[in-house]
Structure prediction request, 1216 residues.
Amino acid sequence: MNFSEAANTGYFFLAPWLVFFPVIGLLFNMIFGGKMSEKAIGTVASLASGMAFVVSVLLAYSLSATHGHTVTVPFAEWIHIGELQLDWTFRIDTLSTVMMLVVSGVGTLIHIYAIGYMHEDVRFKDDVKRFRRFFVFLNLFIAMMMILVSGDSYLMLFVGWEGVGLCSFLLIGFWYDFDTLGQKSTANAEAGKKAFIANRVGDFGFLLAIFTTFWHFGSLQFDAVFKAAEAHPDPIVISAITLFMLIGVTGKSAQVPLYVWLPDAMAGPTPVSALIHAATMVTAGVYLVVRSAPLYNLVHGASYIVAMIGAVTALFAATIAVGQYDIKKVLAYSTISQLGFMVAAVGMGAYVAGIFHLATHAFFKALLFLSAGSIILGMERGHHHLAHGHDDHGDADAHHDEEEEVFDPGDMRNMGNLRKQMPVTFWLYMAGTLALAGIFPFAGFWSKDEILLDAKLHAEHFPGVYWLLSIAAFLTAFYMGRQIWMVFFGKERTEVAKHAEESPPVMTVPLMVLAVLAVLGGAMNLPFDGFHNLGHWLEHTLGHVEGLPLDLGVAGISTILALLAIFFSWLIYGKNPLKDGQPDPLKKPLGFLFTGMENKWFVDEGYGALVIKPFEKLAKFLSVTVDWNFWHDWFHDSVIYAGFKGLARFLSEPVDMGIINAIADKLADMTKRSSEGLSRLQNGFVRSYALSVLLGVVAILGYLLFK
Amino acid sequence: MDFELLPNLVTFFPLVGVLILFFIKPENKVLIRWVSLLTALATFGISLVLLQQFDANNPALQMVTNLPWITVADWNISYYMGVDGLSILLILLTTFLTPISLLSTWSAIEEREKDFNIFFLMLEVGMLGVFMAQDLFLFYVFWEFTLVPMYFLIGIWGGPQRIYASIKFFLYTMAGSLLMLLAILWLGINQGTFAVPDLIALGGIPAGIQTWLFLAFAIAFAIKVPMWPLHSWLPDAHVQAPTAGSVILAGVLLKMGTYGFVRFNLPLFPEAAVKFAPMMAGLAVVGIIYGAIVSYYQRDIKKLVAYSSISHLGFVMLGLFALNSQGIQGGILQMINHGLSTGALFLLVGMIYEQTHTRNFDVYGGLWKIMPVYGTVMLVVTLSSMGLPGLNGFVGEFTILLGAWGAGMPGEVLGSYWYAGLSAIGVILAAIYMLYMYQKIFLGPEGSIVQTVKEHGHVLRDLSVREIITIVPLLVFIFWIGLYPKPFFALIAPTVDNLVKVLQAAMMH
Prediction:
């Protein structure tokens, strides 16, 4: 079959392979991986993800050949009960293909990077066997993410949603016997659990949305739901559905108030942070809102709440990012903040801008995280080099000595002047930073600007959003500037930083691809007539989209803000570089404000005091006082047991069945003497009496009833 | 007068094994094990024939045996056995879990193996009889009959507190049964028959009396389920019972309670069922939340699983008393799911206990690294119990909650969204206590138990081949129901649809 012929019929039949390829990859590695080399395992996994990317490309191609008309591919029946008809059907439309391309494209690059990263990581952690497990989980994640974005109903979306949550749990706690510093601890495992539970809270909301949808609109299939909703636009019902969904969004996409799991999720290996906790999984909430656009369009109130949650999150998380010292923590809060931008955008109905930023953010944030991973490994190498000398460099049997000092390779205070030791990583990081800061003409400039412009244009209906986002954009450029000066400029603040080593090509080459995307990615939707490619592509799914022109006012203000922020960051961190042991220069002028930022505004502590502590107290009270002391002991002794004895006595006296009395006493006796029980049981004592209790009671009742 | 061999053969086949065991010397342990295992496997095989003969499209009772049994005065007690959509899956669950449990005892039970196996097979007869019996009196006989072997299984082969636990188990169940017996006698004598299908067809029980009969049955079943607040026998029984006993207790015996509701309470007293639905669903919700919170506080693995059963069976009860097809079908499927997941959990706990002799999970930690197969299997079962999509638990929980939400719509039987809404919190809580347990045992650095075991001259080993054979069949069904539940729903749907029609008619009143 040549290409043009296939295009006529389309490659849509391939849709299930989006899921099957990664599943085959993970099964292959599970079954045969034990005897395979690391390279082979990594190659299989990368190919599995790469094939999913190829399928995504073919689907997108077929879709463009059919002018973007949505295609559904039924695959299997799942749950059918009465009017409840839940099937697994693939949906190929312009929205889902964008998600597929981002997920499998970025996903594959990260798979390749991870071959190099994990090769070293498992050696620093002294557990080479875990290499395979990592790629099994990573493939599972791609499969689940594909289920999420390709499902044709809320239920399949939910299946993928929970599935990626599981992968997130497994991968955050990948080094489940360590903490982030490589010390033996339960910290990483705790972080995984925290992520799962916070997400479950969100899932609870999503579930309620699903129930409401089904009972009011009779289906969970997207088109059927939207049609029914437009036919009966009951604002209370639709508001309920969209707000329940919002709970799910705040969980999965780490928005206020459920975002607290994401910073801790950095406990996972860096490729995981990049793939799951920056580029793909966390954007699922944004995707959910865009997917449900026909519902959100019907209820302005709920949409405004979504937009405000996003805007507040964007600003709130940005303030915390300013006060962090861990290179990945800064990026984590930055991710929360950027997700806030996306949520704000889609809340305002700026779906194209939201998806646009989702895609560019996937490029530049994956780039930043992976580069950060490269830096951390570079520091680890330097540390290892210092600790063990040249001889056993890169040895498989690297180990941490007991007396070895705890060193944090991710703490920016331990870095400085790394551009000298790691020039490639430095330039890659710069590309990501400029894109994130929104500097012309990098990808982030175009997508962020489109969101800001939408916020400005809709300011009447969504008051406040524009201002919150603008301040957040200013802070974004500031904390990224701070990071650049602290990491790459000034003097090395530790010996380790002096000995940091550049990463191998298997890691840097995927980064270069991402860097190109971070620089040029804006081209997918430029604010000029004829260049609204993404907008026109999504139009087929979202209905008419107005292509926004470039607004020099908005673009000018945001550029000035970003440049000012970078200038300030230079004044504070660049002009006079941080010295070893010196506190953050902002600490003094900002006082308690900076203490708040540094300590994440004490939100974790707040949850501890307001939610976790009371829950544990309640659990103790219910278990000990209510369940054990009251129901287990008192109720049993005073009601059941005493009642049984009383009944036996009552029955035995008038009917003169002494045996009942005897049995009751014997039972009482035995309860007291549990330790001697075995010998008594062996004598056949209870055997006969237990049976006679039964028969006796039956006989008495029969007699009383029918005499 | 009908006679169909198959259901009777399934029910009583284990007695063949019992008979053979009587003639084997107690010292001949290997032979004893094999005889009872093969008996149980053969019973499972026969039940598969039963499944093959079963017509899933027929909502009525099938393969009926109906022989007059006791006909003195006005009593028309019959030996009435049959299978329908409400019971077929539970019958298969029973015959499926019995050989698995027996296999698990090969290393766990060392004393008096012969007696143990005899009791176990007798218990199987009782359980199968409960699910097959279509005559109230016959049902009661089987119901009470299961008590005796279970009593001894806990009382002889149980843990240190076994006597207390077994007597408590006995007293609670007996207390409930007495009321049920009164209700049965009243029904049989006043209506002139004890046959359940005839009683349903007759109908016409005045609403006032339905109330009392409903309650009498409900208390007996609620104790068995157990529903809050009648649950306090369960932690004792579970913790003290030997592994195989816990598996069967959680897997099948508790289902006798939920089955009782759907077999008797709903079709016999539909008006009362509608009236009591909010109360029953309310108790179910309390059970879901309460069981989950109390689970979280436990430090004994078995106790945690025991309390989690209260929460899980709360879901089943909620589904049943949603009184719609999603809820009831989900509820019945969830009975099976709970049997598989919790059965697997108890088996897995038993496997580690045999090596460490402690169930206090504060001494555990980091076992995934030492026992990768065990850790992975436990993870799957944990996730199944938490209701992760793709595994069996989700299908049940989702349909139950969906059904309960529908029943909560204005004008429906529950009339409030709070039931389903609060129960959905149970989904969050399940993640909290199950992951907590998983983390304590398998994640983090090595726990002190690893050292303790070493000091006793042993090394923790991963699952043996026999253990893997024991657990894999459960995993197969955990995935199968999760990924493709259609054939399972197909078995129960027609019968449930009929039942729902009866209930809907009652709602109209």
User: Anything to note?
Assistant: Confidence is low (pLDDT under 50) at residues 1-7, 391-403, 671-689 of chain A.
